[in-house]
Automatic annotation (TrEMBL):
InterPro entries: Glyco_trans_20
Protein name: Alpha,alpha-trehalose-phosphate synthase
A biological-process GO annotation: trehalose biosynthetic process
Keywords assigned: Glycosyltransferase, Transferase
Lineage of producing organism: Bacteria, Pseudomonadati, Pseudomonadota, Gammaproteobacteria, Enterobacterales
Single GO MF annotation: alpha,alpha-trehalose-phosphate synthase (UDP-forming) activity
Domain of life: Bacteria
Enzyme type, top EC level: transferase
Similarity annotation: Belongs to the glycosyltransferase 20 family.
EC number: 2.4.1.15
Signal peptide segment: none
């Protein structure tokens, strides 16, 4: 049976996404190829070191990057260039020749690791736009393995992909895949419309096309969370302690906001919504607070200081106009909380406001719901342009550009009777159970394994098999 090689940016990040990868590989086994979080000084006569570690449930293959690859390739080309384009803001994109060169070099590092450890019938699953070029590099090395790629980000609408200078080389690499997965139907439609307009394609079915002699299958596989991990977080001592602290020190009507610090977060609209809420419903003065989690690590380093300053200015103006000595309508928390502590904050909040202007996965929305007390749950207010909006039946959907609509949704959420909150939470949890991270992996890998392109049933699991070659494990 085919083995699984999961390829991602960094397995050492303490994030919901890293926890999801861990849960998937712990259940099915495989090899996780990733940056090790360390840096090394490259020399012409020295190969990049690879570290293979055999684990009880899955194995890892890691390697270091150079500072230039990390700063110019990752934070430069990816965050300053690709990120704005994929989030419908090509006017903010900044590309340089050096950042592109470093981006290609860091992708060569992943490709080298994959080609040295992949076996002929392994399936290779690459995660997100950080690693698009490594797909073609693997093909150029001679590997014929089935390769799947999943977009964690939204796919650009219209011709925006072509705002990337010399975009053809990225598209050529992407088209070396066998399966391309998307978070939403709209993202897949954007991709198919663009690819049909720019390349000679033959549509075999609605989601399969022939291009450059390769059959590419596309699909919508919304990423879910690991509910078992959410339960562990909610039962931790740190979670319980933080929830208790919030309940004792914050107003009863705590409205939680968070996410990445970037131009797509929609922070000014949320803060304006709080002002609308207080002007429209003066009785909230003193007993409602917007708790904005804004740890610098949640954003992009090149913009973090500027965005943090802008956020603090907005909060300061808001608190100066409406606050008192005993109460602030907006509290901006820059502290880096552990995942257990974050879970406590989520659990203690009456309303979760996740209103990005555009986003890919919106995992915060799903974690907020999963961490609520079913007996007395909070209410989710969600942007209709969030990647999770298609699956979150039970959320209050809003236009993230409309502070009045956000304010109305917060007011509605705070006034909902217990029975209605429980019904909404139950519907949301039903979706989270149905489309969890294991469904996501089984659906995507099932399509990848099925070379005929049928809508295969989720794979039952990839068993670990061992071979005699020293130092090598068969997944």
């Amino acid at each position: 049976m085919s083995g699984l090689i999961l390829v991602s940016h960094n397995l050492h990040q303490h994030s919901t996404l890293a926890a999801i990868y861990t849960a998937i590989l712990s259940r099915r086994g495989g090899l996780w190829v990733s940056w090790d979080g360390e840096f090394h000084i490259a020399t012409p006569d020295q190969r990049r070191p690879l570290t293979f570690q055999q684990g009880d449930k899955f194995d890892t293959l890691t390697f270091p990057l150079t500072r230039a690859e990390y700063e110019e390739g990752y934070h430069g080309y990816v965050h300053q260039g690709l990120w704005p384009v994929f989030h419908q803001r090509p006017d903010l994109a900044r590309f340089t020749h050096d950042s592109r060169r470093q981006y290609q070099q860091l992708n060569h590092a992943w490709a080298t690791a994959i080609t040295e450890y992949a076996m002929p019938d392994d399936v290779i699953w690459v995660q997100d736009y950080h690693l698009i070029p490594c797909i073609k590099a693997v093909r150029d090395a001679g590997l014929l393995n089935r390769i799947g790629f999943f977009f964690h980000q939204p796919f650009p609408v219209g011709m925006h992909f072509e705002a990337i200078p010399e975009w053809q080389w990225l598209a050529e690499s992407l088209l070396c895949c066998d399966v391309i997965g998307f978070q939403t139907q709209q993202d897949m439609n954007n991709f198919l419309s663009w690819i049909d307009s720019e390349f000679r394609t033959e549509r075999l079915t609605a989601n399969r096309l022939m291009i450059h002699g390769r059959i590419i299958s596309t699909g919508v596989f919304p990423l879910g969370i690991d509910l078992d991990e959410a339960i562990c977080l909610s039962e931790s001592n740190s979670c319980e302690f933080m929830a208790q602290q919030c309940q004792e020190r914050l107003p009863v009507n705590t409205v939680l906001s968070g996410g990445h610090l970037d131009e797509s977060a929609g922070l000014p609209y949320r803060i304006s919504a709080m002002e609308v809420l207080l002007r429209s419903h003066p009785h909230y003065a003193g007993n409602v607070t917007l708790l904005q989690l804004a740890a610098p690590a949640a954003g992009h380093p090149h913009r973090a200081s500027t965005l943090t300053h802008q956020l603090e200015s907005l909060c300061g103006e808001m608190n100066g106009v409406h606050g008192t000595l005993e109460w602030y309508p907006v509290s901006c928390l820059n502290h880096q909380y552990s995942r257990e502590e974050q879970a406590g904050i989520y659990r203690a909040s009456r309303v979760g406001v996740v209103t990005p202007l555009v986003s890919g996965m919106s995992l915060m929305a799903k974690m907020y719901v999963a961490l609520q007390d079913p007996a007395d749950p909070g209410v989710l207010v969600l942007s209709r342009f969030a990647g999770a909006a298609e699956q979150m039946d039970g959320a209050i959907l809003v236009n993230p550009y409309d502070p009045d609509a956000i304010a109305d949704a917060i007011h509605t959420a705070l006034q909902l009777p217990l029975r209605e909150r429980q019904k909404r939470h139950a519907r949301l949890m039903k979706g989270l159970h149905r489309f969890d991270c294991h469904w996501w992996a089984e659906s995507m890998i099932g399509r990848l394994i099925d070379a005929d392109g049928h809508d295969a049933q989720p794979a039952s699991g990839l068993q670990r098999l061992y071979v005699a070659a020293p130092g090598r494990v068969r997944y």
